[in-house]
Amino acid sequence: MKDMRIAIDGMGGDNAPQAVVDGVIKAINEYSDLEFYITGPEEIIKEELHKQNYEGDKITVVNATEVISNNEHPARAIKRKKDSSLCKALELVKEKTCDAVISAGSTGAFLTGCTLIVGRIKGVKRPALTPIMPGKNGPFMIVDAGANVDCKPEYLVQFAYMGKEYYKGVLKGENPSIGLVNIGSEEEKGNDLTKNTHKLLKEEENLNFIGNIEPRDITTGNTNVLVCDGFVGNTILKMYEGTASTVLKIIVEEMLSSGAKAKIGAFLLKPVFKSIKKKFDYKEYGGAPFLGVDGICIKAHGSSDGKAIKNAIRQSKEFHDNKVLDKIKEQLELKSE
Amino acid sequence: MKDMRIAIDGMGGDNAPQAVVDGVIKAINEYSDLEFYITGPEEIIKEELHKQNYEGDKITVVNATEVISNNEHPARAIKRKKDSSLCKALELVKEKTCDAVISAGSTGAFLTGCTLIVGRIKGVKRPALTPIMPGKNGPFMIVDAGANVDCKPEYLVQFAYMGKEYYKGVLKGENPSIGLVNIGSEEEKGNDLTKNTHKLLKEEENLNFIGNIEPRDITTGNTNVLVCDGFVGNTILKMYEGTASTVLKIIVEEMLSSGAKAKIGAFLLKPVFKSIKKKFDYKEYGGAPFLGVDGICIKAHGSSDGKAIKNAIRQSKEFHDNKVLDKIKEQLELKSE
């Protein structure tokens, strides 16, 4: 089989290009069937490769003189900065030089760029950003987590199909359960969007739709794929991060302000807290795929280190090897027939 | 000054009537200027009063033969069960026998009942459920947390004014900061509702509007009053509860499955975990006022015990003593002039 080729935005993310190059080298050492195209100012990327002592032939540096920052207007940046590391990486997928693209840069620019340059799968109404998150009893996915703030019921039905195929292919679960995020478990609860979406999802025989899921129960991880509009999905994502961080901070504060006994207790529990931190570590899960575009497009976390980049690469490899893109197309075609 | 009179749904909540009667007696022992009207089947309430050895003259039992459960359709239940403990309690406020009403029963029935029986303040477009929640650096309020799932920008502006007056009167903070829940900090971020609400809030000179607040930052408690539609507010409320509970459960599981050292550590930290649990205890904060109705209407948590009921009573007393209702009316009138 031919090697899989991955385009990676060499200048995307808080720790670029160091973390990007580090992650790519880690992946090359782990997988023998991957090739990389790193985009960015040639000298800077080559210097980094040199610094990290890479001398193999699995990496091509693609020169790109511009960089898109987090503060730029996404659509404007994509249209104007054709020679940016992000646009160049997206072009590599569009022209089929590469099978996948990964960026840890601006989320807005990445989503806009994927839609404008890579393009949507025929029939997909709205692509969706789909982070995988750690739940108590297993990982779960949110579709959509921020790409589409105003949604129609039909979009959410497509989100469910795309999420299902991604879960099956990458998280390796047969017949994943699909839940509709709602503020009540009963069918008639919710806003116009959820009430109408519930009706549609109930009719879908090819989905393991288990009904409404209240946000209180999301983090157990008992439901595999959660569909909602991007405003609600992004709220869930950020409440999860914010609350987990607040709770852990309060625990540390309380321990430090308590007596000597508590301090000894905290010391003895250090390995436990370390393992908990690992459980909540987004780096373990790689990035968030942007489902519905006609290519494998993975958004890595802005603060990704080498390990997170490597995991995003592993994720794009699973996406590719398990033909998730073809399966999404099949499902959506079947549905529209 | 005349005693304040409080109507309380004797049969509302998982622990009624025991918890209700317990809470009322606790409040009578603490505050000398309160009188109570407990609604419910006369014999049952009187038996409970007898069980708890109450013999004073501050409590009137108002007979009500029906009970509204959580499983009933709210509007239907309010219309059909005129002789329910909830409807009777609401009627006492409507006819001005009482100054406030408290119920730990069905939230849906309570909100519908307050709107239909007590009625809205003139000029209020939508009343809002407003829980007070514990943040890392102080309590914060969510307006609306579930009463209005589909909102218009004008509703949210009123939510901000009502939240402001409640915060000032009951949580005792001058010039509370008002934040708009949004998925980005920049003005142009968000969905149609938040973009248009942002524009309106910016123009309000009598509000200390500090801009968009991302859900990640809500639980710090640095912003006093957060406005959003009821779907998003309810999601925030339930994600907060769910995530805090998940994180604490994972910690306990990890501690128990780790070695002896971790178990000793956990033992030594017991008082710390107890104090954290208290920090997250809704019982400390009483209930959630339903702001915008023409009376003091407090929804206590369904699983309230006597202490939670007593705190909801304290809350309605502060609401009353600080004339929050009048101040809300003044603010909204000023605004509509």
Automatic annotation (TrEMBL), chains A, B:
The keyword NADP does not apply. It comes from the Bacteria. Keywords: Cytoplasm, Lipid biosynthesis, Lipid metabolism, Phospholipid biosynthesis, Phospholipid metabolism, Transferase. It catalyses: a fatty acyl-[ACP] + phosphate = an acyl phosphate + holo-[ACP]. Its main location: cytoplasm. Gene3D superfamilies: Isopropylmalate Dehydrogenase. GO terms for cellular component: cytoplasm. One of its GO terms (molecular function) is phosphate:acyl-[acyl carrier protein] acyltransferase activity. Coiled coil: none annotated. Its EC number is 2.3.1.274. GO terms for biological process: fatty acid biosynthetic process; phospholipid biosynthetic process. Pathway: Lipid metabolism; phospholipid metabolism. Pfam families: FA_synthesis. It is found in: Cytoplasm. Catalyzes the reversible formation of acyl-phosphate (acyl-PO(4)) from acyl-[acyl-carrier-protein] (acyl-ACP). This enzyme utilizes acyl-ACP as fatty acyl donor, but not acyl-CoA. Belongs to the PlsX family. NCBIfam families: plsX (TIGR00182). Homodimer. Probably interacts with PlsY. This is Phosphate acyltransferase. The gene is plsX.
